[in-house]
Amino acid sequence: MKKTYSMELAGRTLSVDIGRVAAQANGAALMHYGDTVVLSTATASEKPREGIDFFPLSVEFEEKMYSVGKIPGGFNKREGKASENAVLTARVIDRPMRPLFPKDYRNDVTLNNMVMSVDPECRPELLAMLGSAIATSISDIPFCGPCATTQIGMVNGEFVVNPSQADWDNGDLQLTVASTSEKVIMIEAGANEIKEEKMIEAIYMAHEINQTIIEFINKMVAEIGKPKHEYTSCAVPEEMFAAMREIVTPEEMEEAVFTDVKQVREENIRVITEKLEEAFAENEEWLAVLGEAVYQYQKKTVRKMILKDHKRPDGRAITQIRPLAAEVDLIPRVHGSAMFTRGQTQICTITTLAPLSEVQKVDGLDENITSKRYMHHYNFPSYSVGETKPSRGPGRREIGHGALAEKALVPVLPSEEEFPYAIRTVSETFESNGSTSQASICASTMSLMAAGVPIKKPVAGISCGLVTGETDDDYIVLTDIQGLEDFFGDMDFKVAGTHDGITAIQMDIKIHGLTRPIVEEAIARTREARLYILDEVMKPAIAEPRAQVGKYAPKIISMQIDPQKIGDVVGQRGKTINAIIEQTGVKIDITDDGSVSICGTDADMMNRAAELIRIIVTDFEAGQVLTGKVVSIKEFGAFIEFAPGKEGMVHISKISKERINRVEDVLTLGDKVTVVCLGKDKMGRISFSMKDVK
User: Fold this and answer.
1) For residue 253, what are the domain limits?
2) Taking the CB of the first residue and of the last residue of the chain, which one, N or C, has fewer CB atoms within 10 A?
3) Per-residue confidence (pLDDT) for residue 137, from 0 to 100
4) Where would I find the S1 motif domain in this sequence (predicted)?
């Protein structure tokens, strides 16, 4: 049955075609918003995947280049590996939806979003978020939805609902909020130092709009939604928990997890697991779910300790941050380095500077962004958590963490005019036990300052956790969660910013939403912790950006020339500019507007290159004194090259104050001479004199 539903959303019509395409998927929605079209599908396997203790959800965001009238770049000429934007979009869809599937569901589920047409006024990412929720809600896949997503931008101090791509890219706020009919379930934000109260206002503006979308989805579900299918539950039997408590008492489990040393806790749990394996050796059914059962037992123990006893596994107070340390310049020869340590979380960030020609080129659906000047990369090797596995390159988590830190730092970076460099920061995770992404923001801020990048203000980040009880007002917010509290808790609320406001937020939860008091408390708590880190930890390590880039960093001279003279500097087939580069060893970049960047490590050679360019683009007048090299000798005089591709002639009568019969009597090829410009001769050539130099 084909049916079309529509609603007005932020001044445009959102239209959803059901039953028109992809009928064999469990659920499918062909989404239209303006001229943007996204096909969202939800499919599930018939049986659970064996041997796993997690819900196998896959989310895809496929950027088809035909949607913006492009043929993909490269030799292959077809879409390949998912772009960074596609990965980040898939994560933003995954994070709010995953907690709404049953916790004991082990069937494979894939949410696929194919971008087929892009209208710059209607971002396809938003359509994919809504389409995934609609396709899943109307399908027979078990799902405690619906949920909805709204994006808020800010232009000239005013909020914009579901902004155009241009307003999203150039505004002061990029906020994405997902909600159920009752609560906020996901927040993702990048901001230009937005005040906390303003951010909360924007979050709940989005939440209110989400309610209208949920009503729209509920109407579809009521009319054409499929009955949810039954599934094989992977829940741990209650009688097994009872037997476990007889073998390992709650007091013993509490003692096992109550330590601030991760390795000690893991060893304690290993011993407990072996004890239970021995006890249940005859019960194959229980042995099959023992790992999940031990996890659940730990979880219940930790949550009870925190919520009822206000005891954290490492003994800290609820608002207490783990021991902090910061240092700079620990890696020699790199352009900038810094390390930030919080408990057993340790990040070292290295900064590398390069000329603007080294910016990252972006081939995607956003026509406003074709390059990235600042790149933040985050690495998470297995040794950081005491494990062993080969490195296979960054996964989606690493890409997400790097993008979050990048988003947090972009608002404080200097402009290209102020600092004409491409900038790359790489955060290496040395040790991990909670919120490495926020530690990487702190380390990166210090590394940038150590490299001499004149950032406007330092940025720090911190994460808050949450443990909830049976009612909405039975909860506790934890400052600076460690890995165990993240693992067994209900929330990871990361906030980064300066003294003056928020620059990034990422909120993940495992429950069906947060009340407004929890959101407000988490934002207030992270601000308090952020200011402490900025003032008491980072500032003593490095208080402000260094006045100059480091010894091993490239230096850059910027100059402006008449765009009409670019051809003179470049020369035929690049002959002139290549000659300058060969003479001086520098790197030269010229843009179409006449901006010239000269990059090198030898200041004298850089100045020489700048002088040569100035000579080439200058219209010489009589009286100017220059130094050049004899490159050709004729009977009537000598030709002097005073810059690559620029020559003038000294007539034989202007070489010496005494009369000479032959030019060779005074000059030989390669001689360096000083000349004064006499203007242009009848043939339009620059004419020089050696004898009239004063």
Assistant:
1) 238-309
2) C
3) 98
4) 623-691
Whether residues 530 and 567 share a domain: the answer is no
Residue type, 60: E
Query: Which tens digit of pLDDT belongs to each residue from 435-468?
Result: 899 999 999 999 999 999 999 999 999 999 999 9
Pairing of strands 27-33, 36-48: antiparallel
Handedness of CA 438, 439, 441, 445 (dihedral sign): positive
Handedness of CA 498, 502, 504, 507 (dihedral sign): positive
Q: Is the pTM of this model over 0.90?
A: no
- Binding site feature residues: 486, 492
Q: How many domains does the chain have?
A: 5
Q: Which of 91-105, 111-125, 566-580 is least confident?
A: 566-580
Do 31 and 84 reside in the same domain of the chain? yes
> pLDDT band at 686, cuts 50/70/90?
confident
What's the CA gap between 640 and 659, in Å, rounded? 20
pLDDT digits (tens, 9 = 90+) for 357-378: 888 888 788 877 778 999 999 9
Geometric angle at alpha carbon 144, from 301 and 518, rounded to 5°:
55
Q: Are residues 299 and 341 in the same domain?
A: no
Domain annotation covers residue 670: yes
Which tens digit of pLDDT belongs to each residue from 174-208? 999 999 999 999 999 999 999 999 999 999 999 99
- 164-173 contacts at long range (C-beta below 8 A, 24 or more positions apart): 164/120, 164/121, 164/122, 164/123, 165/120, 165/121, 165/123, 165/366, 165/367, 165/368, 166/120, 166/368, 168/123, 169/366, 169/368, 169/369, 170/368, 173/202
Residues annotated as binding site for Mg(2+)? 486, 492
292 plus 376 within the same structural domain:
no
Of 490, 507, 541, the last residue of a domain is 541
Rounded CA gap, 31 and 127, in Å? Answer: 7
Closest CA to 60 of 77, 36, 85, 78: 85
Identify the CATH number of the domain in which residue 681 sits: 2.40.50.140
* DSSP string for 275-307: HHHHHTTT-HHHHHTHHHHHHHHHHHHHHHHHH
Q: Are residues 17 and 76 in the same domain?
A: yes
**Alpha-carbon dihedral sign for residues 482, 195, 537, 402:** positive
